From TrEMBL:
Superkingdom field: Bacteria
Organism: Streptomyces maoxianensis
Entry keyword set: ATP-binding, Nucleotide-binding, Transport
A GO term, aspect molecular function: ATP binding
InterPro entries reported in the protein's UniProt record: AAA+_ATPase, ABC_transporter-like_ATP-bd, ABC_transporter-like_CS, ABC_Transporter_VariousFunc, P-loop_NTPase
Identification of the protein by name: ATP-binding cassette domain-containing protein
Pfam families referenced in this protein's UniProt entry, alphabetically: ABC_tran
Residue ranges occupied by any ABC transporter domain in the UniProt entry: 3-234
PROSITE patterns: ABC_TRANSPORTER_1, ABC_TRANSPORTER_2
Keyword RNA-binding: no
Length: 247
């Protein structure tokens, strides 16, 4: 998997650019995207997911760009997106909701229905396939969202603050799930939680004001923590160091 962002610029308003000439490459594995509020993380994920269109520049996945109608369909099928808030679809059971997500990505109804069962099984919701999305907990809803990204066989899954608001137990469940799923799917995860970083991720990116302050391996990132940082807070200390530096 090679996801490339080339010279992307984006602003919600003409006067202010959130991203300006941003270039980044993501390789296979699990990447964590860190950055303060307003850094541009959700915007970046929105562009990769094709929910937002850059003013200039382009994204490509394994050489495939979402520029034409045909290639956009293929590109979108290869990219899964778990937005910040997963909403249950009124009147749909979990399996129906996951199948619907697959159908929206261009799968046949039959394939989407069959694949939905496997996707729910992979995220540990096999027992709840006939439950309504309104009857599940916040953690289960997040796992439903992941199943929706897996149903169409995405090569890379983007997750925007997937553990925000989850209790420590559910965060642990999520961490274990991600570790298991990352054996055959790549993940790019935006988060403010740095404590389990070394257990889950291969690569760290720190984005601040639309600028990449760090991109590299977890060990190299942790090595940047100041010598007096507490052993359990190396990632947090390294992160604060990066966002405190002058551009
Ligand atoms: N729909 C929108 N309309 C106008 N401005 C927006 C919109 N969404 C985001 N912004 C602005 O764009 C900038 C980047 O926001 P973005 O949500 O990408 O940051 P983020 O790094 O994901 O932040 P957070 O960690 O708080 O989720 C911020 O200044 C934000 O206020």
């Amino acid at each position: 998997m090679k996801l490339e962002i080339s010279h992307c610029a984006f602003g919600y308003r003409r006067t202010r650019r959130v991203l300006d000439d941003l270039s980044l490459t993501f390789d296979s594995g699990c990447t964590v995207l860190l950055g303060p509020n307003g850094a541009g993380k959700s915007t970046l994920l929105g562009i990769v997911a094709t929910a937002l269109s850059p003013a200039s520049g382009h994204v490509s996945l394994n050489g495939l760009t979402p520029s034409s109608r045909k290639s956009r369909k293929e590109y979108r099928k290869a990219v899964g997106w778990l937005p910040q808030h997963v909403k249950p679809v009124a009147g749909l059971k979990l399996r129906e909701q996951v199948a619907y997500a697959g159908w929206l990505k261009g799968m046949s109804r039959r394939d989407a229905w069959d694949s939905a069962a496997g996707a729910l099984h992979r995220v540990g919701l096999a027992e709840l396939t006939n439950r309504s999305g309104r009857e599940v907990s916040g953690g289960q809803l997040r796992r439903l969202g992941i199943a929706q990204t897996l149903v169409h066989g995405a090569e890379v899954v983007l997750m925007d603050e997937p553990t925000a608001g989850l209790d420590p137990h559910q965060r642990g469940v999520f961490r274990d799930l991600l570790t298991e799923l990352s054996e055959d799917t790549s993940f790019i995860v935006s988060t403010h939680q740095t404590e389990d970083l070394a257990d889950i991720f291969d690569t760290v990116i720190v984005l601040d004001e639309g600028i990449v302050r760090y991109q590299g391996t977890v060990p190299r990132f942790l090595a940047e923590a100041p010598p007096d940082a507490a052993p359990g807070r190396l990632a947090e200390a390294a992160y604060i160091g990066y966002i405190s530096r002058e551009a």
